[in-house]
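Input structure tokens:
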């Protein structure tokens, strides 16, 4: 489990459908083979550690359904180690299991902050409400507004400077993980066939009012 607070920006040395080699420093501290590190929000398992890099396996499925396939040698990536049991939640609950990819529509400065617009797949957009938490390339952010499938986020200067969000451009694709609580709520309010419509009649039948 992660929190969406980036510890370090690393650099891709190599990446393929089989493995990734990431240059870094801070996240190597106390890390051993078998540990989890989120790379741009994707939970990967460390398989080898060198003095200034780690290697992780990347399955063809993970490579295909995430924005990892947009990376190339030299690309910057957000890195976060799994949260220890005695750690603090600085962001929100992040599983490192990417739900889909979003397309960056706009990145623009705004009085010291940075406005970020991302077009989501309707599959993920249905979980979004104003002020909810969302993970973008591993960064815990708050949705300022939503219009259709497009979300708007106001990124604070510290987060922008200390993550690879500073390098994304219009048209880039980013990894999206929605708030896991929203998915649990949907599951609990649905019947076993998961096809029911949650309407006024449904709420009355199930004792909500």
């Amino acid at each position: 489990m992660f929190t969406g607070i980036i510890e370090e920006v690393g650099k891709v040395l190599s990446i393929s459908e089989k493995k990734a080699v990431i240059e870094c420093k801070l996240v190597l501290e106390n890390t051993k083979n078998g540990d989890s590190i989120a790379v741009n929000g994707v939970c990967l398992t460390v398989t080898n550690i060198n003095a200034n890099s780690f290697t992780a396996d990347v399955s063809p499925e993970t490579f295909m359904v995430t924005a990892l396939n947009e990376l190339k040698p030299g690309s910057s990536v957000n890195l976060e180690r799994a949260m220890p049991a005695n750690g603090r939640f600085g962001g929100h609950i992040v599983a490192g299991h990417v739900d889909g990819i979003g397309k960056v529509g706009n990145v623009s400065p705004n009085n010291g902050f940075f406005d970020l617009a991302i077009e989501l797949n309707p599959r993920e957009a249905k979980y979004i409400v104003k002020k909810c938490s969302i993970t973008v390339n591993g960064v815990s952010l708050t949705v300022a507004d939503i219009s259709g499938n497009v979300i708007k986020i106001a990124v604070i200067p510290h987060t922008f400077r200390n993550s690879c969000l500073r390098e994304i451009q219009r048209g880039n694709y980013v990894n999206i993980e929605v708030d896991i609580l929203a998915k649990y709520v949907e599951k609990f309010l649905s019947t076993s066939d998961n096809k029911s419509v949650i309407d006024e009649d449904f709420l009355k039948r199930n004792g909500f009012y």
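Residues 102 and 174 are 5 Å apart (CA to CA). The radius of gyration is 18 Å.
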